[in-house]
Amino acid sequence: MPPRIPSNRIPQPQTCQCYLTRTTSEPVVAARQFHASARHDTRLRRNMWEWLKGPGKVFRDPLPGSTNYLSAYDKSGNLVRARRNQSKDDQSRDELDEDEDTIVQRELDQGLDDVEREDRALSRATRRAEREEAEARGGIPPERLGDMRPYPLNQSFRSQPVLSEELREQLYTQVVNYKHDIPSVAATFGVDVRRVAAVIRLKTIEKQWEEEGKQLATPYAQAVLNMLPTTPFKPDTAKPITVHEPINDLPVHPSTRQQIFYPASESRQFTREDAAKVFDNKLLPADKRIPLPMLVDLEKWKIQGLSREERQKKQREMDDAARAATESAERKQAEWEARTQRTVPGRRWNFKFQDISAEKVGKDGRGKDAVGYRYGMPHEDRKRGMVKIPTRVE
C-alpha cells in the first residue's frame, strides 16, 4: 500500500464563486408532500384512506363506555351486537313486560318448586337489567365475549375485564368501614380473595396520599379504564353486582399430579376425603382446600330446599361465629404477648424480649419452642464423622 501524502502538502485550487442565471421563463413548481407524491401512491395507502373515510370513521367518535375493538364491527362499520339485539325474539320481550305476579302464578300452576322459581326470577331480573342498561346506552346492548377481541387475527385472545373505580371503592368501604371479613366480601361481589386484599391495600395507600396532599394520576387511570372492559357496580339497579371472576377455583396440589390406581370395593362409598388420603395422608379434601368453603354450604342448603331468607340467616350466624372466634384469638394473642414479652423503646426501633427455656429443644434439638427455630438449623453434611450415604433401604 503506497504511503499517504499529507493533505497540507497538496496545493489547493483557488476558490471562485459561480452564478447560474435562468435563461428561460419556466414556472417554479412547488415540491409535493411526501405522502401525496405519485411514487408513494400505492394500493395499500389508497385502501387505508378509503377505510378511514368509510368504515373506520366510527373510531373517530367512539361509543362512550365501550372498548370499541375492531372485532365489534363488521367490514361496513356496523356494530355487530346492535344488529344482534334487533333480531331478538319478541316472545322474550313480552315475558319481561309481563307482570311479575302473573308470572309467579303461572309457574305455580305449572308445579315448579321454590328453587326453580327463584332461578327463573333471577334470570328475569338479569335480563331486565340488561335491557335497562341497553336503553340507557341508546339501545346498544352490553358487550359480549365476541366483542372482547382487540386483535381480529387472534381469535383466541380476549381482553379480560378489570375492576371499576366504583367497585373498588365499595370493596374498601365494606371491609374498612363496615368491618366485614374479606372472604364474605369476596363471595358477595364475586371477586377473588387475593384481589380483594390487594384492592384494600392499594386503596389504603391512596387514601393516605390524599390526606398528605400528594397528586394522583387520576386522568391517566381514567383513560386506561375507558379503553378496557370493566366490571361495574350499580347499586340503584335490579342487578347491582356483576360477577367479576371465578372465586372458588382450586389450585392443583403437587401431590395430586401423579396417577394412582387404587383398588376399592364396590360396596364402599369412596368420598373426597378418601381420595385425598390416597394421594397424601396430610392432604385435605377439595371441600376444605377451596378458598371459600361457605359457598359449598350455601349450595347444600339450596338443594335441601331452604328459602333465601333461611340461607341468609344461617350464613350470618356462621359469619358472626367466625368473627367472634377471630377476635377471641387476637385477644388471646395480645394478652400472651403482654404477659410474656417486654418492650424496650429505642431511638428508631422498639426491641421485644421474651423469656425462652433452654430445655424445650426436644430430643433432636429442633423443637418448635427452641431458640432459632424460626430460622432453621444448618445441615450437618460437612461435619466430620457424619455418614452421608444411606445405610438401609426402607
TrEMBL record:
Residue ranges of the TM segments: none
Signal peptide: none
One CC-aspect GO term: mitochondrial small ribosomal subunit
Coiled coil residues, start to end: none
Residues covered by region (Disordered): 81-152, 308-341
BP-aspect Gene Ontology terms: mitochondrial translation
InterPro entries: Ribosomal_mS45
MF terms in GO: structural constituent of ribosome
Biased segments, Basic and acidic residues type: 117-136, 308-340
PANTHER family in the record: 37S RIBOSOMAL PROTEIN S35, MITOCHONDRIAL, SMALL RIBOSOMAL SUBUNIT PROTEIN MS45
Protein name as annotated: 37S ribosomal protein S35, mitochondrial
Organism of provenance: Hortaea werneckii EXF-2000
